[in-house]
Design goal:
The structure holds two protein chains of two kinds. Chain A is mainly β. In chain A, 0% of the residues lie in helices and 49% in strands. The N and C termini of chain A lie far apart (33 Å). In chain A, strands 2, 4, 5, 8, 9 and 10 form a six-stranded mixed β-sheet that branches. Chain A has strands at residues 5-7, 10-13, 19-24, 31-38, 42-50, 65-69, 75-79, 88-95, 102-103, 107-111. Chain B is an all-beta fold. Helices cover 0% and strands 50% of the residues of chain B. Chain B contains no helices and twelve strands. The relative contact order of chain B is 0.33. Classes of the chains: A mainly beta, B mainly beta. The interface between A and B is medium-sized, with 24 and 24 residues.
């Protein structure tokens, strides 16, 4: 596609439920990133995939958060047992040669 | 560890006036620096980036930024602001000191434009 796409655009869930957020990167981009944007914390890096290398998970806030990237393309961010503090906008980005990151529109997650 | 400071949380400028948004970074080597803009309800759009070479970089929408190693700064400027420039602006540095790695963002500066 022309840009990074994310789905759903909005997700409302109840505390304790699991959620999955999807990211489709720009075709041909080998790197994919997840960030979280919240009022209190600003923009935080979560996880980074580069080709077939082991992902950089150093930004994941707890073991309730995980992500996978299938076939080097689509990525899913999973949050288990959601908490109210997980409410935020989750942004995905991808990059190719040159390393410039292009961001998707984000998924707004609200945990009730 | 790398960090980015944007000292101004909110700035208001008059339409047609010049703009400078401040950004200071902490990094031991030559950083990879970026400015992104986020309009309400939108994702982040890259305005410009500095990797090496000329320290004055030109970006989209008439923006420019100057890398000053001695001041650890990468300030964003625009000579004449338009009402459509009202948005939130983020300065960022590449986490591992190379392009293509995760970004460390500043807290952002909200720009309001008055008529």
């Amino acid at each position: 596609g022309a840009g990074v796409s994310q789905s759903p655009s909005n997700k409302v869930t109840e505390k304790g439920k699991d959620v999955e957020l999807r990211c489709d990167p720009i075709s041909g981009h080998t790197a994919l990133y997840w960030y979280r944007q919240s009022l209190g914390q600003g923009l935080e890096f979560l996880i980074y995939f580069q080709g077939n290398s082991a992902p950089d998970k150093s930004g994941l806030p707890s073991d309730r958060f995980s992500a996978e990237r299938t076939g080097g393309s689509v990525s899913t961010l999973t949050i288990q047992r959601t908490q109210q503090e997980d409410s935020a906008v989750y942004l995905c980005a991808s990059s190719g040669v040159g390393g410039t990151q292009y961001f998707g529109p984000g998924t707004r997650l609200t945990v009730l | 560890a790398q960090s980015v400071t944007q000292p101004d949380i909110h700035i208001t400028v008059s339409e047609g006036a010049s703009l400078e948004l401040r950004c200071n970074y902490s990094y031991g080597a030559t950083p990879y620096l970026f400015w992104y803009v986020q309009s309400p309800g939108q994702g982040l759009q890259l305005l410009l980036k500095y990797f090496s070479g000329d320290t004055l970089v030109q970006g989209i929408k008439g923006f420019e930024a100057e890398f000053k190693r001695s001041q650890s700064s990468f300030n964003l400027r625009k000579p004449s602001v338009h009402w459509s420039d009202a948005a939130e602006y983020f300065c960022a540095v590449a986490k591992a000191g190379q392009a293509g790695t995760a970004l460390i963002f500043g807290k952002g500066t909200t720009l309001s434009v008055s008529s």
